[in-house]
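User: Please predict structures.

Assistant: First:
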Amino acid sequence: MASTSTVAEFIEAFNVDYARTHKEYEDNFWATKMNLAGNSTDALTASFNALEAFLGDQTTLATVRGHLAAAGGATPDQLKVLLHIEKTFKCYIVESAEGKKVREEAVSMENKMNSARNKLGFSYTEADGAVVAATPTVLRTKIRSSKDESVRKSCWEQTRLVGPFLLDNGFPKIIAERNRFARTMGFIDFYDMKVTNAEGFSKAKCFEMLDGLEAATAPLMHKALAKLEAEKGADALKPWNMSYALSGELSRLQDPYFPFENAPEVWGRSFAAMGIKYRGTKMQLDLCDRTGKYPNGFCHWPIAPHVGQDGTWHASQANFTSLATPDEVGSGNTALTTLMHEGGHAAHFANIEQGSPLFSQERAPFSVSLAETQSMFLDSLCGDAAWLGRYARDRKGAPIPWELLERSITEKHPYGVLGLRGMIAVPYFEKALYELPEDQLTGENIARIADEIEVKIQGGLGSRPLLSVPHITSDESSCYYHGYVFAEMAVHQTRAHFHAKYGDIVDNPAIGPELLQNYWLQGSGDPGFLKMVDDLTGKPLSHDAWVAELAKETEDMVRDEKVEYAKAVATAMAAGEIDLGMHAVFVHGDEVIADSALENGYVAACAKFKTWVNTNWPKTVAA
């Protein structure tokens, strides 16, 4: 990057150069993950390496340290930026030529493997023997909702094909290369490097916290599995049956109250009612599933927001995806929850107000746990009777009946711990992976360990095989899943705090500003995740609130939620325009569906999107 003399000039030039390099990578990331026309794995690899090289440039780091050493002319805000550049670069500086070579080889192998995985074809067998092509999202939906066990089993067996494919296409070698790279950086292994850089504490500290949660919830898991077997038989414990046993019939009964085509408007109204704004963000939303599309929802930022040296606000640009198949049972509910989740990420990053985009880029040293707390706090509302009574409405506007919510609580609450155990299985699996001696990193060993972890942590083989979890294959999301666990701890602690302080969370206009002031503005800067949670809630982070809710008696949960539901259905849902301070563009791959800047507002863009969904999935048209 260009050499400049003053601190202000240096920071401004740095920000411009970083923003350009970051955007080039993110544009290629989106193109390959969405399988857009002309996408190139080679371009993705080259732009990733360019971003890594930018963040690992020792000349830039030396310049930063020179400004810090002569910091008499720097303002406090400029010192904050310089220190954060130094902190970020220390996560990426690779001293040795060998380390750089290993890193680049690992990333190249990963991109080729993931590109091949995106093109991996799946099919399942219907009850009548017909073989049907399907995406991973459709497979997971049918495992949850198909009435026919043979269909559920066929779909589950297809998800088990992902593991052998990865293991035959370089995944063991990628694990070894990642570990080799981490050791050139002075870490125990790749997992230790990732958690230390992102969270600021070691792998040992990470698993000390996880071990406490695992021990506290193991008895609840065994109790839940025994109850499920007693109520629904031993077959309910089979991995292709468990999700259906817990939600299959309910998914079908509740499905009419989650019409996917209405989900963007519902999301917008819910966030707006809580006082959440996006500060001029341009958001591209690719919400429907299709062949070749990356099999997991995410939100990334081609443009990370920041405040320029002249005080100018540079708004963010976000790419946001979910995986809806609008006429599949359960797809609307899943997609709406994904909108709330990824929209939470987008709201968080849109509101980071610091002097460099480094504070608002989602890679290290950004805390995974902090980022996921925001999205998971907001998607947690989808399970509240106070939210469902307002926003879960059928195509004629009728609210979801209390009887369905009561049944949902009665049937699901005793088994909530099983979701927790499925969540913590991922970090325990990755820990075991990266601790394997290199000469034992074989496909056979990795497959065996995956099954052993599922049985130990989940009580049996998982309905979603560990080797099919997309996070584990990508450099930036591998050794990441513990962040969801710590975030869930923080979510329950934050919810308990807000309930004690306000009584209500849903449609409370004080919630957005509280999140903004306490969790959002600082980005990856100080005070950091653990201190932010402590500052907002008045308590150090712990699993106490989460475990307490899991252990709450079902009868007490039903009683409390019934009161909230009654208040919710008595409150009319807002109408009129939705002001999120956002420019929304709905797309489907290369196709542009609707643009709020051209359609006279967000609500009009949602209406055009709804028409597009109805046209492409005629079953979604209201009767």
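Second:
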Amino acid sequence: QGFAARSVEGALGCGDGPPGGSSRGCRMEADGLSEKAVCEHTPPLKRQRAEAAPASQDMADSAVLPADDGCSSDASAGGAVVPPPPLLPAPEWAGVIERVKSAIVAIRVTGVRPFEDSPAGVWQGTGFVVSLEDPQQALILTNRHIISTGPIRAFATFDEHEELPVFPVYRDPIHDFGLLQFDARRLRFTPAREIALSPSGLRVGAEVLVIGNDNAEKIQILPATIARVDRNSPEYDDTNYQDENTFYAGAGSNTSGGSSGSPVIDRAGACIALNAGGASEAASAYYMPLDRVVYVLEWLRQHRGQAPLPPRGTLLTKFLFQPFDMLRRLGFTEEQERRVLADGAAGGAGAGGAAERSRPKGMLVVDSFLPGTQSEELLRPGDVLLQVGGEACLVFAALEGHLDSHVGKEVPLRISRAGTEMEVSMTVVDLHGLIPHDFAECAGGVFHQLSYHTCKRFHIPVQDRGVFVVQSGFGFGLELPYHAVVAAVAGRTVGGLEDFMAALAGVADGETFEVSWYNPTTNERRKKRSSVR
């Protein structure tokens, strides 16, 4: 049969080869509470938005000021106009830029196999050095959708045009960040520098620069002012992968393709957030807070050279941040609100762990959960989360910190359902176990375990995960479509990749066998049977 199973890390040799690619583009649609955005790595050429803009947009982009000569500024009157003065960096910004630019890199990634919902291909993004503690194993921070979760080849271009190979060492199972490793000793001309992380610097009103590979142009500098730090994570409508259970910050930096993974730099020269996405039809950009990034980096420093990944826990539930006015519609009482405000004033409740220490503006609410889980039995959409492990939980950072430290253990939750408070106990599930880390190839096809994000998008129980058809190949292509889920092969139930390979190993060369499958992308979930040879 010619199939082969390969781990993601070992698929390319050397044990640390990078993963597969993700092409993440989407449109911005604001519809009530539904916010959809676009994730910014370099898209295909047709998505570079290089086409001619409408005349009205051209005028907006090239706005001019009328001369102040006391005459009419009407263009038809032929009034003189002068361009606005050039924007020059303030002296303090010039020093900051000089210090950090050597740590910022342009990343070029080649996805050598399709993986999850990402085809093989080439794309670009941005990253920056965050650790030089061991120069031989220096670390670069970028977005998860740049590293992706499959096998890749990647190279980083530094400030002095030096290109070095980089290798993925961590991809977060949920949040949009990952880490690449490179050998800083091989830099000949670019000074080896790192950028400090400052999650507490992310606050409304902070003046920042987004420095990165915007529009695939090496090192572009875009100014912005942080406008909000309590936005729910953007929803991307072109991919199975969605971030969840974290705040995002918003600003009008007008970043575009290639700027994903850029550091958001404050006046002190520290990175306070990670640029991750933006609106395709507006200047809005979305920055990911660094709370979990700092946690993962610290864990890796303390466990250098060890195989286990940093613990990441989940309740298989998506929470959303909702303001108190919305909570009232869910039955949250005035007395409960007073208690929360009093507790928040005593302990501080900044969004996402940022330095905005004002009164609480809302709480976390159950939005959705996977079928066939404890969450489905014990929780209901609209439940307001009050406490986790006996401690008040008003922001995502507090929730994730508790879950990550209790993977595989029971945690008590206190919730409010239509104003009635109750306690439930739930088991924290290991997030890394829900993300595919290996794949099999057979007759030109690529197959791996169904991922948590696909289960979440199509409402599939994680207990019944089959094998995801990433690429049908010439053996299965005539019968099984791309994105099908294999449930059985040759009469043997397929619950995972090992079952799939064992079933194929029992089929003789040239023999016809039956495959049971269904397509989760359609409304019809009835399992179909096809004969494959």
